[in-house]
């Protein structure tokens, strides 16, 4: 057992006691192991540009931004019950939020934080449009908003119209150094993105979100502020996708086309990744991205086949293993990397209580 | 005069959109499923019609006699298997599964049939025939035929739902599934029938679209699904006439956008839809409380 609960508070003998809930904690050994492994992984990843060829770091760039996008979508659909098919709106806007100031003379790297700010602001406006909608209505309306963003951006000839635009970079950086910079930016966005998701789920909001994930009406009835929580998650997911979109643009030789920036293919990718990896857990989108990129590399020469296979697998997983690969692994081995769960202790129970997801 | 022309062309286009929308609306109304693969099904139907025309040499406009029954059977089968299985898991799963279906269909079409555009070859006499009213307003017979077909289908559907045995069953299950089950109606079978109708109408819409315009594998997700959904929301859920009005308003908004700039046709429709969503979320024809 890699994770045990806090010992339940002792009850006075014979007293009437309802079930008690304690926050999940990990055994010191396991927590230490995970923390040390995470720290080691971050250090290795951080110095990787000095160790590996650039095609390795280029591949990891894609892994990192897809992990961020999928984690954000997981927060939306896996916890807040909001199935968005329009995250590409924020992915594209985040990228253009860097390009537009750079075209007007700003330093491209200095403009990177704008991707989060602009995408989150767009998220606030979009939420105003979609907040009353649920399920399919919500899904298609977010999709419509993304197409509106694409059509509006395509109108501007200064952004290359429909043909695309190149990000002006500060004076000559060597390609190797530029690749390393982009890699570090991607790594930073990944760490910040996962940390944000973890901190949200570990907070009071996370408790509301977990309640919301399990039953929206019940969450309402026990006093979770459903609307506020959903808005907060929607805006955070918009900002996170914006940052990931800016990283995507940097990795595409700093070139951006409205049709690829706002393509619904983004939604297809991040939805398949999250479902296959495991929706409703932090680990799921991370695992799913690794599976996705591995499949993409292995089947790249077969055209769209990998996408067809991925879609069919995702449909199968949604139907028959709705908690995804990570759910299967976690159930089999009792592992959790991120302690965001809670334990329910029934009266009279001591020692190891049944763990609630 | 171009404005009047835009309105008239928009009305005619709206009939086609209503034809796309009625199946989506029916499936949402009866089984609470928004089928995100709806647009791709229309494209598949258009390709199937092309295949039927090539193999059997029937006149293009009669290909629907084969394609529509095939699609109705397909609809019943898909509903009883895939969609019912995801419904048992919950609304979220139906969204994810139909979205997966949408992506799989689009990429399979791209893989097997290439990204080339096609159109359904109706006889030249029908394509080019038109008449003129006033000065400069030309109405193509083909557009009029499509609009007429849409109105006939909606009338037929309205009559079917209000008067036939199965129509009453569908409405009963949509209103209260448990109560309908108590009286002996199998809701799974009724869902299958509703899906068969929805698939049949979307097949007809796909063929009509294929004669009206060129199509390729991506147009189902890029445009048709969104247009169908917008027509449903603009018109207001729960009434077929609302769907027709919604389709017509969307068509008119798009055609007016097209007179402003050739690239603004779709954008004008989308913005009109968002405006309706904000200002009148229950739809133009809907009453308060049905939104």
Give an overview of the whole structure.
The complex is a heterodimer of chains A (357) and B (291). Chain A is mostly helical and 357 residues long. Chain A is 66% helix and 3% strand. Residues 1-8, 10-15 and 351-357 of chain A have low confidence and may be disordered. Chain B is mainly α and 291 residues long. Chain B is built from twelve helices and two strands, in the order αααααββααααααα. Chains A and B meet through α5, α11 and α13 of A and α3, α4, α10 and α12 of B.
Count structural domains of chain B. Answer: 1
Q: Could you say which structural class the secondary elements and strand pairing of chain B correspond to?
A: mainly alpha
Quaternary status: heterodimer
Cα Rg of chain B: 19 Å
Question: Describe the biggest sheet of chain B?
Answer: 2 strands, antiparallel
Strand content of chain A: under 5%
Q: Characterize the biggest β-sheet of chain A.
A: 2 strands, antiparallel
Separation, N- and C-terminal Cα atoms of chain B: 36 Å
Helix and strand pattern of chain B: HHHHHEEHHHHHHH
The level of helicity of chain B is over 70%
Based on CA atoms alone, the radius of gyration of chain A comes out at 22 Å
The percent range for helix content of chain A is 55-70%
Care to count the β-strands of chain A?
A: 4
* Content of β-strand of chain B: under 5%
Q: Which structural category do the helix and sheet elements of chain A fall into?
A: mainly alpha
Distance between the termini of chain A: 15 Å
Please, how many helices of chain A? 14
In short:
The complex is a heterodimer of chains A (357) and B (291). By secondary structure, chain A is mainly alpha-helical. Chain A has 14 helices and 4 strands.
């Amino acid at each position: 057992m890699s994770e045990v609960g806090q010992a339940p508070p002792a009850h006075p003998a014979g007293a009437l006691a309802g079930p008690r809930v304690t926050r999940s904690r990990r055994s010191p050994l396991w927590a230490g192991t995970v923390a040390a492994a995470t720290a080691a992984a971050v250090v290795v990843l951080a110095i990787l540009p000095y160790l590996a060829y650039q095609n390795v770091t280029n591949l990891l760039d894609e892994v990192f931004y897809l992990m961020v996008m999928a984690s954000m979508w997981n927060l939306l659909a896996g916890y807040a019950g909001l199935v968005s098919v329009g995250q590409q709106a924020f992915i594209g806007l985040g990228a253009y939020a860097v390009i537009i100031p750079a075209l007007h003379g700003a330093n491209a790297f200095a403009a990177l934080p704008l991707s989060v700010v602009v995408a989150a602001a767009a998220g606030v406006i979009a939420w105003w449009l979609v907040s009353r909608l649920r399920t399919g209505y919500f899904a298609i309306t977010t999709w419509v908003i993304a197409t509106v963003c694409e059509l509006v951006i395509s109108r501007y000839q200064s952004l290359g119209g429909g043909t695309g635009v190149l990000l002006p970079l500060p004076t000559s950086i060597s390609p190797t150094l530029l690749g390393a910079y982009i890699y570090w930016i991607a790594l930073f966005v990944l760490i910040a993105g996962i940390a944000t998701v973890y901190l949200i789920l570990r907070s009071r909001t996370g408790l509301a979100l977990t309640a919301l994930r399990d039953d929206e009406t019940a969450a309402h009835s026990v006093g979770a502020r459903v609307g506020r929580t959903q808005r907060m998650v929607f805006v955070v997911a918009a900002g996170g996708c914006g940052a990931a979109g800016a990283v995507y643009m940097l990795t595409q030789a700093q070139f951006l086309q409205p049709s690829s920036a706002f393509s619904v293919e983004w939604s297809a990718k991040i939805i398949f990744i999250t479902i296959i990896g495991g929706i409703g857990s932090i680990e799921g989108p991370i695992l799913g991205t690794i599976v996705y990129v591995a499949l993409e590399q292995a089947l790249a020469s077969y055209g769209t086949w990998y996408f067809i296979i991925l879609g069919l697998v995702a449909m199968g997983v949604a139907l028959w293993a709705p908690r995804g690969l990570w759910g299967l692994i976690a159930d089999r081995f009792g592992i959790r990397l991120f302690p965001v769960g809670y334990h329910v202790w029934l009266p009279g129970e001591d020692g190891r209580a049944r763990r609630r997801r | 005069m171009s404005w009047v022309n835009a309105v008239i062309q928009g009305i005619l286009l709206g009939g086609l959109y209503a034809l796309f929308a009625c199946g989506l609306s029916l499936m949402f109304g009866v089984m609470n499923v928004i089928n995100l693969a709806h647009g791709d099904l229309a494209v598949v139907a258009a390709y199937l019609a092309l295949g039927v025309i090539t193999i059997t040499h029937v006149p293009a406009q009669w290909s629907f006699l084969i394609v529509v029954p095939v699609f109705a059977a397909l609809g019943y089968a898909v509903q009883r298997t895939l969609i019912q299985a995801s419904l048992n898991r919950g609304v979220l799963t139906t969204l994810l599964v139909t979205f997966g279906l949408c992506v799989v269909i689009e990429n399979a079409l791209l893989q097997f049939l290439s990204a080339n555009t096609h159109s359904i070859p109706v006889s030249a006499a029908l394509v080019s025939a038109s008449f003129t009213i006033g000065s400069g307003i030309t109405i193509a017979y083909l557009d009029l035929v499509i609009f007429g077909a849409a109105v006939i289908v909606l009338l037929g559907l309205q009559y079917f739902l209000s008067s036939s045995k199965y129509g009453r069953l569908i409405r009963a299950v949509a209103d209260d599934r448990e109560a309908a089950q108590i009286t002996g109606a199998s809701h799974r079978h009724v869902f299958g029938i509703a899906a068969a109708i929805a698939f049949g109408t979307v097949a007809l819409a796909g063929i009509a679209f294929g004669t009206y315009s060129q199509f390729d594998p991506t147009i189902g997700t890029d445009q048709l699904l969104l247009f169908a959904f917008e027509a449903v929301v603009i018109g207001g859920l729960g009434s077929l006439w609302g769907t027709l009005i919604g389709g017509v308003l969307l068509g008119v908004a798009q055609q007016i956008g097209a007179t402003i700039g050739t690239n603004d046709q779709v954008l004008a429709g989308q913005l009109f839809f968002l405006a309706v969503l904000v200002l009148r979320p229950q739809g133009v024809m809907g009453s308060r409380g049905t939104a």
